[in-house]
């Protein structure tokens, strides 16, 4: 185990940097997936949806404005579900709620990729927004600092704040925090690029790219549990 102050790349927990990067990649992926391929609505960035709703109302496009309301409701419901899972934490498939969340995401996004074109985009966006909310509510800590895996505004602010502290006070820990946030922001950007590219290339099934990242996250958890078991001769 690394000493305090290190970046902690090796440790795979619900607060590890590797998992945070993978989840941020998924977060960026989902936003471009729904925005590019599912009607110009964000799955994660509810601030963006609220602004777009207001713009459509001002423009008098009432029907289009209504399309931004279901994701807001789904996102709110996702918070309730995530909090319920964390509090009960009784699962047959996994020994902890964090991996249960990953399994939930994997299953739902796989099903989303099977939804045919004839189904309204609102249905897909609502499902994705719900699951994104569950992820955002469930994974909120990066080693020893708060972060969000589905939006970047707060992470960017925290990163710049850490850079300022590191530069002005020569604080090593602040520099390390800045690097961690930098990894998270870079992962989100990569996910957004992949999400947009795959959606334009293969269409609706592009969401399975997020499934792959989530499966890898779940495998990391499983391998970590194996290493924790005592050796037997």
Automatic annotation (TrEMBL):
Keyword Transmembrane applies: yes
UniProt keyword annotations, A-Z: Membrane, Transmembrane, Transmembrane helix
InterPro entries xrefs: DUF1275
Protein's UniProt keywords contain Transmembrane: yes
Membrane-spanning intervals of the chain: 21-42, 62-85, 97-115, 181-200, 206-222
Record's protein name: Uncharacterized membrane protein YoaK (UPF0700 family)
Annotated source species: Paenibacillus peoriae
């Amino acid at each position: 185990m690394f000493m305090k102050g290190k970046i902690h790349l090796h440790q795979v927990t619900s607060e590890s940097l590797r998992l945070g990067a993978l989840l941020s990649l998924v977060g960026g992926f989902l936003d471009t997936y729904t925005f590019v391929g599912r009607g110009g609505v964000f799955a994660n960035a509810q601030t963006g949806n609220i602004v777009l709703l207001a713009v459509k109302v001002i423009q008098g496009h009432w029907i289009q404005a209504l399309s931004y309301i279901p994701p807001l409701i789904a996102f709110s419901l996702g918070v309730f579900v995530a909090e319920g899972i964390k509090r009960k934490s009784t699962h047959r498939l996994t020994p902890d709620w964090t991996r249960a969340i990953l399994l939930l995401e994997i299953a739902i996004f796989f099903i989303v990729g099977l939804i045919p074109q004839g189904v309204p985009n609102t249905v897909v966006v609502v499902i994705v927004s719900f699951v994104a909310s569950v992820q955002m509510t469930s994974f909120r800590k990066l080693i020893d600092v708060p972060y969000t895996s589905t939006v970047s505004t707060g992470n960017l602010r925290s990163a710049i704040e850490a850079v300022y502290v590191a530069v002005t006070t020569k604080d090593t820990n602040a520099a390390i925090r800045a690097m961690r946030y930098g990894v998270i922001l870079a992962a989100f950007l990569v996910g957004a690029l992949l999400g947009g590219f795959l959606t334009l290339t293969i269409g609706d099934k592009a969401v399975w790219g997020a499934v792959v990242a989530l499966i890898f996250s779940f495998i990391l958890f499983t391998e970590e549990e194996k290493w924790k078991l005592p050796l037997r001769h």
